[in-house]
């Protein structure tokens, strides 16, 4: 089989396993479903499931790699003259417009699944922490920060905290049964408020084309 077809087959298998797992989790709850049951329902070997998803939590949070890299990627690709804060605010508002699941447009059932699962809640905290680490590394590189300079780490903590706050806000609204349109309107208002709190300290930090 050509390499391209093999890669496509792997992607299809991975997606099928994830979709099957999510369906079972929503039906019965995350903690109640076993890897063996997922494998049987997806018609693959148990080892196939664990090869694609070493952690059970990542069967439900299948976007984890994109999630953890998103903020760093946005900052690294910001426009000339644009600060890290401005780039992240712009991209967040764009994600609101497209109802992106990565910022909390998950639907009530999925939000309830996460809220009811200690394992998924803990894993989500880990993903937020990993996202902060990735952003701190990117900010350090983008500003040519000296070794031991805590500015990139502090800035990453503030910027990631804004995203954590808004993500939880979106999840809370989903749990209330709000529609995507209602969540989008609320998040747009909240994003302007939350990011606005950082303007005084970070509006001129990590501006593309300048060095701190």
UniProtKB/TrEMBL annotation:
Pfam families: TetR_C_14 (PF17754), TetR_N (PF00440)
Keywords from the named record: DNA-binding, Transcription, Transcription regulation
UniProt key word DNA-binding: yes
Keyword Protease (UniProt): no
UniProt DNA-binding region: 34-53
Domain HTH tetR-type: 11-71
InterPro entries: Homeodomain-like_sf, HTH-type_TetR-like_transc_reg, HTH_TetR, MftR_C
PANTHER family (alphabetical): HTH-TYPE TRANSCRIPTIONAL REGULATOR BETI, HTH-TYPE TRANSCRIPTIONAL REGULATOR RUTR
Protein name: TetR family transcriptional regulator
Organism from which the protein derives: Actinoallomurus liliacearum
